[in-house]
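Case study: Serine/threonine protein kinase.
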Amino acid sequence: MALLVGAGASSGILMNREDARDNRASDNQVSQYKMVDTGASPEPSVTTEAASPKLKKKKKAKSPSPSTSKPATSAPAKPKPPEDPSPGNGLPAGFRTVVDDRGFSLAVMKGWDRRELSPTQVGYMPPTGDEYLQISEVEGAPRASFINYLEMEQAMQESSNGYERISLSHVEYQGHPGARWEFIYTPESGEPMHVLQQAYIDDEGTEYTIYVEARHRLWDSGTEQVFTTALNTWKQP
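Here is what the predicted structure looks like once written out:
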């Protein structure tokens, strides 16, 4: 294939205008430009490149550079305080579970030591001695816990220990008939004491009593918690 090229092209051998004039008569005024095909690969001429519009190269879209600004983040939500500030074992803070030598178990305050009070009573108390938790066990209870409390109350009322009832009522406990008694009394030391206790009789006829006593002036919600935690965790032998 031959390309028509302008003056000065390198693809073919161009004949100059003087040669064209000499041959004009015989060639009947052929084109003023002639190209002899040399078989070489044609290169685009200057004229061709000027005549043909250059295609504009499409600019590649630049990838968006990563933003150096930090994405806006909302402030993290404040964690809600736990409804029950209990450790993983389900006990209130400051309590531990003990398994007594007599076979029962319950939770008591950490740091409270066990003491044998009598053949039927075991106590747990702090080093200060201002309060204590007592467990009583009486086999073959002769009467219902509520009746027993009424008789004990009558004896206290007849004494001069400043007895004052807060409450005394039938309270079933762990499916067994029982009673709960709360009162204030003043022993020989002259320091008014506050007592709260729950008793019940199991199917074998054994009466168990969970008893908390503390100085009345020091009685508070923490003392109440000693009692309620003992009730909530109590397991008899």
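For the exam, be able to explain this: Helices lie at 17-22, 46-51, 145-158, 221-233.
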